[in-house]
Amino acid sequence: MFQYFPTNYVWSLSTMIALTHGGNIGEIDAMCGPIREAATAGDDPGTVAFYEAWKGGGDRLVALAEADLARGHKLSAGEKLGRAALYHGIAERMQAHGFEHRLAMYRRSLDLFERSRQLTRENCVRVEIPYGDAHLAGLYVKAEGLAPGTRAPIVVIMNGLDSTKEMLQKSVMGTMFARRGLSALFIDQPGTGEALRLHGMPAVPETEVWAGPVVDWLQAHAEVDPARIGALGVSLGGYYCPRAVAFEPRFACGAVWGANHDWREVQQARLRREGENPVPHYWKHVMWVFGAETMDDFLAKAERMHLDGVLDRVRVPFLVTHGENDRQIPLRYAHRTFEQLVNCPKRDLIVFDEQTGGVEHSSLDNPNNAGNLIADWLAEQLGGRVA
């Protein structure tokens, strides 16, 4: 993986996310150059400097976009606001829970994303799915090239530990499904995005609790084929997705972009400082995500985060993928997930290596080849098109 900050994986990971999710390399270099030295102090120190740098970059784009709007150049303004939303989202992602400006920055990122979506007339619509006393927010991308009145297959994309629906929609997944005749739903499930930040919904190890209402909503959608609903989990979604498919039989197939078979073991390894963390202030972050008051409380919740004894319930096609050089989640977990899918009518395991590219965690080093391969596999299972 390209590491802008050679001694700091976590800061480089956020930078790489920006580069592969719609960011501009010149803008990113301008933000990151002045904080190179701060990155040498480690993951956690200096994250406020990171925040100020990336907020500043986003603010500059907003000012340029406002000038575009004054001239009536809505498309140009929309593109700039989209990158500003990304940079503000990255700035928020890197802060500790409790950082005083974090929620305001998150709301600002949502607002900029929405303005960008409207100005660019993007194939992307915000939706709200009833859940408990509130809702789960999603982004719906409609399949391309379908005759009027045709119901399309759809893929539900599940976040990882620290991703959001906006981040994943701006990845290669924002267009690769639609081009293959598949719609896509990017969802902020409990523990992520709006569900966590705006509604206080912590992560739920029993993912079928929220996956079921999502499927209910999709099956009632006039543009969705209720018999062709697939699921894709990214990063910690490599736990959420298989669990959801195992206990929600209405999913027609499933896939993971990074297996996460035993997250409880991963936490024990991280306590021993083995492997890389995805975000700074890691233990504060996971306690927030899981609604834990203490470390003991969090570790007790994490004990339920494994797939042993679950995957024999999966009776639909399933794809397991993993980067050969994943420094967060060891490759062996992909083999464990694959080996336990004993009742799948079709199961495939793909390890991304130096030849294919995408060897790092969820292929964040090079998502294009890996993402298109996953999209082709899902299109083949759901009756989309690959030609």
TrEMBL record:
Keywords: Hydrolase. Its EC number is 3.-.-.-. Residues 214-383 form the Peptidase S9 prolyl oligopeptidase catalytic domain. Pfam families: Peptidase_S9 (PF00326). GO terms for biological process: proteolysis. InterPro entries: AB_hydrolase_fold, FrsA_esterase, Peptidase_S9_cat. The keyword Transcription regulation does not apply. GO terms for molecular function: serine-type peptidase activity. This is Alpha/beta hydrolase family protein. It comes from Derxia gummosa DSM 723.
